[in-house]
Fold:
Amino acid sequence: MSETTEYQILSKVKKAKRGSVFFIENFLAKNNAEAVRKSLERLVKSGELQRVATGIYVRPEKDPVLGFVSPSIETIIRAIAKRDKARIVPTGIYALNRLGLTSQVPMNISYLTDASARKVKIGKRTIVFKRTSPKNLATQGEISTLAIQALRSIGKDKVKEEEREKIIQLLKKENNNHLQHDIRLAPEWIRQILKQAL
Structure:
């Protein structure tokens, strides 16, 4: 049983491109949980898979110089959101980092979500999913979404002039329809900053 399970898992893994993310659930349809767990352990030992967190595996990319390379934290987070059919929005320092307003990369990465609140440990970093109202996830533009969350994180009356300018310049690259839509969802003080990019 276990060998067949391992063969089934391996053939599924081999069909996926390198860098693909897998969850233990991906292999449970036709197999029992214990057989899947043991098969995954063996595939990790053989180097076919890499375990990045509890129940989360990747088919590592192969770099000619560096050897096996794990996918970015972003790729793993997007895969979790897709699995959970969840909408997610980066917040706090991570939103500031993604916009280039800080070089600080937080150890705890925080996301708002409409799925259940949870923490996922990936290496030394922790991804925190905080449940929020649908309104906070209704934005459409990638840059404007980050800008709203970054400004919220900085706080009203604490935004420096250079931060305001950088955000306005970045927002000029946003899809105009998305920006106009997202302005309506922002708090009034953030709305005034976003409007300057139109």
